[in-house]
Design a protein that fits this description.
12 strands, binds nicotinamide-adenine-dinucleotide, binds thymidine-5'-diphosphate, three-stranded mixed beta sheet, Rossmann fold, alpha/beta, 13 helices, seven-stranded parallel beta sheet
Length: 348
């Protein structure tokens, strides 16, 4: 079996569902259930004994040691993290605690357990760390996309904490020989994403007739990766990636934020032509230190592992909008008082 951390969050939950459907191999899922974790994401697995959920913190050494001893996973996929840049600006401490100290703890517990395995099991074992393109910093317009050798230049507390974790993963390979793999991907979108990130926030606000808050001039550029494509990329890296290597994963979909928001409005208008969703667009004060552009050169994973995204931005966005329109109960379940508090704090 494999151990997944953070598997009740957006990408982790999509990965667990995708993994079980694609491989059938059992999963132990360690998740702290922060505000971003939601067991409702995994409701379709209730009663499925291929999925074992454990509530716990990757920073809890005893808990991680115990899980490794009990389940003896052949691989670990580490999604657990604090992930929202705006929250890292308001409160960076939790990002250091989970993304840096927590990842260190997970690595160190894994190293100690892995070192005592028989040689064949040690060779087969993989520790796959899921990271972000934000570790590379911001690109000028027209500059080539980030490659695996682009120097790190993180600009937010979030990206700095992920960069620190990536360095620890590298060091555990170099120093102890732990068979690590790292993926650095672009902005994900798709079903089950907590509505604090750009795409789900805009969909949810538009459905509710609320303003669509675009930061600054709306011309910051991101590359958009459909979450199902990210899951298939992680499967490809786990199966064929070379220990110690990093792989950039992108969606071939660079877009300015305002164009993303307009596309969401267009898809919503197809179902509801009488509502002028685009009229809800509101320009608001920019994010401090807002990175201007991210872009990915995904040539390495394409050449070496034959992976390419299956979705275009148009097809992925249509599936995403349809999912949010069809899952009002899920939306109600994540729109708690805490969520409202965050929205008031961030958009006051
Ligand atoms: P998310 O915020 O939706 O979910 C994070 C999950 O981790 C939650 O279920 C939460 O409860 C859990 N968690 C948090 N702290 C924990 C801890 N200390 N111990 C155990 N579990 C903990 O995040 P996501 O968008 O699914 O991102 C998953 C991973 O992918 C993260 O490592 C993130 O940095 C990376 N990533 C995300 C994106 C994106 O666009 N969402 C892009 C690139 C990389
Ligand atoms: P986000 O989804 O927070 O991802 P990241 O900052 O990790 O790339 O934001 C994506 C882009 O959208 C980013 O340039 C900031 C912008 N943005 C807005 O304009 N308005 C918003 O309300 C949010 C959440 C993001």
């Amino acid at each position: 079996m494999i151990l997944v951390t953070g598997g009740a969050g957006f990408i982790g939950a999509n990965f667990v569902l995708d993994w079980l459907a694609a491989t059938g191999e059992p999963v132990v899922n360690l998740d702290k259930l922060t505000y971003a974790g939601n067991l409702g994401n995994l409701a379709s697995l209730s009663g499925d004994d291929r999925h074992v959920f454990v509530r716990g913190d990757i920073g809890d050494r005893d808990r991680v040691d115990g899980l490794l001893r009990e389940y003896r996973p052949r691989a670990i996929v580490n999604f657990a993290a604090e992930t929202h840049v705006d929250r890292s600006i308001h409160g960076p401490a939790a990002f250091i605690e989970t993304n840096v100290v927590g990842t260190f703890n997970l690595l160190d517990a894994t190293r100690a357990w892995w070192a005592a395995l028989a040689q064949a099991e040690r060779d087969e074992f993989r520790f796959l760390h899921v990271s972000t393109d934000e570790v590379y910093g911001s690109l000028d317009a027209g500059a080539p996309g980030f490659s695996e050798v682009t120097p790190f230049a993180p600009n937010s507390p979030y990206s700095a904490s992920k960069a620190a974790a990536d360095h620890l993963v590298r060091a555990y390979r170099h120093t102890y020989g732990l068979p690590t793999l790292t993926t650095n991907c672009s902005n994900n979108y798709g079903p089950r994403q907590f509505p604090e990130k750009l795409i789900p926030l805009m969909i949810v606000n538009a459905i509710g007739g609320k303003p669509l808050p675009v930061y600054g001039d709306g011309l910051n550029v991101r590359d958009w990766l459909y979450v199902g494509d990210h899951c298939s990329a992680i499967r490809a890296v786990l199966a064929g990636g070379v220990p110690g290597e990093t792989y950039n994963v992108g969606g071939n979909a660079e877009m300015a934020n305002i164009d993303v928001v307009r596309s969401i409005c267009e898809v919503l208008s197809e179902a509801d032509p009488d509502t002028d969703y685009a009229a809800l667009v509101t320009y608001v004060t920019d994010r401090p230190g807002h990175d201007r552009r991210y872009a990915i050169d995904a040539g390495k994973i394409r050449r070496e592992l034959g992976w390419e995204p299956a979705e275009t931005f148009a097809s992925g966005l249509r599936q995403t909008v349809r999912w949010y329109l069809g899952n009002a109960d899920w939306l109600a379940s994540v729109s708690s008082k805490d969520y409202q508090k965050w929205i008031s704090l961030q958009y006051a």
